[in-house]
Design brief:
Layout lengths: L3 E18 L4 E14 L4 E7 L9 H16 L7 H14 L4 H19 L3 H11 L13 E3 L2 E3 L4 H13 L4 E5 L4 H15 L4 E5 L6 H13 L4 E5 L7 H10 L4 E3 L6 H10 L4 E4 L1 H4 L2 H13 L3 E4 L6 H13 L19 E3 L2 E3 L2 E3 L8 E4 L12
Parallel strand pairs: 5-6, 6-7, 7-8, 8-9, 9-10, 10-11
Antiparallel strand pairs: 1-2, 2-3, 4-14, 12-15, 13-14
Length: about 375
Amino acid sequence: MTRIETVTATTTSVPLHTPFVTALRRTTTTDTVVVTVTDSDGRTGWGEAPQVWQVTGESLAGATACVRTMLSPAVTGLALDDRDDLDVALTRVQRTVARNFGAKAALDAALHDLFAQSQGTTVAAVVRGWVAGSGGPTPDGGLDGIRLTTDVTLSAGDASALADTARARVADGFATLKMKVGTDAATDVARVAAVRAAVGADVGIRLDVNQGWSREEAVEVIRALADAGLGVELVEQPVVAEDVEGLAWVRERVPLPVMADESCYGPFDLERIIRLGAADLVNVKLAKCGSLRTGAALLHRAHEAGLGTIVGSMMETHVGLGAAASLVAAVPTTLVSDLDAAWWAARSPVAGGIAYEGEAVLLPSGPGLGVTGWVVADADRPTTRA
């Protein structure tokens, strides 16, 4: 019988090759907690809980404490021989603590990874099994060595800098650009126009406001964008997360699709968005919803309700992005997803896992998430182990 033997939580700070700037924050590092789970046969599963104070409210210390004091004791010693055993372990993770979605998502991904390795299959295939078992749509095609497509984010900046960056990202092979706006409503339209002029008509442009506008600003700016004919694909989270009624108010008054991100964490939020008609699309993130199964259920429910979907992430490394990409591989989104966060890393802290090739995200063909170990030396990463 295979059992869960140890759970560890390791903090690491990974430098970015370019500062990441939004309406909420500016960062030059990805600060995160990497969770590992080792079984009695010596296999190790990997997951990740990023620190994003402005969105999830979780810190490195908080996520580490959650894993060490609550989640680790809840699963250590459990059997992990079949899908029923995995279900028991995953349910323990979700029921042991309230909220703490990033910490729970990290252990959830690590358990999926560990189980997938034991079965000689991918995490995407395991998630696909949950979807098929729930009566939801089952994607066609194989999952081994799959290639996904991602957009790439343009950090908030002035028009000239954004135009230069946009040209560089297109040269890197990206066909969909996600612009961070919302820092200055008065100049947002001009900056989008500068990017459109720089890249031409064939490159997709989507906007992420990160809660940066008031209701009235959102309507004014989105209408101006539409009137200017700038070919904006969608506008993400134009108002503060708590103002779902305001999101619906904006959506009723603008001609461009509106996507909910920070307003949609889990099933309750999604049902409210559907009921109010607050968004045309939703952005599902594991650090918001807490598990791969919940993420799959959110995508399925959104599709059932006629909403568009993407899967995104926080600023995470190749570990967290591997789990997010596995979700997309199992339950395809309606639009190109937002899986570029690990692309920003100057180096990966782990060996193996996903890789980037232009706009393509390459999932490994081996079992699990394909992560084989740490690359960064212990001296470079302060640790807290459970």
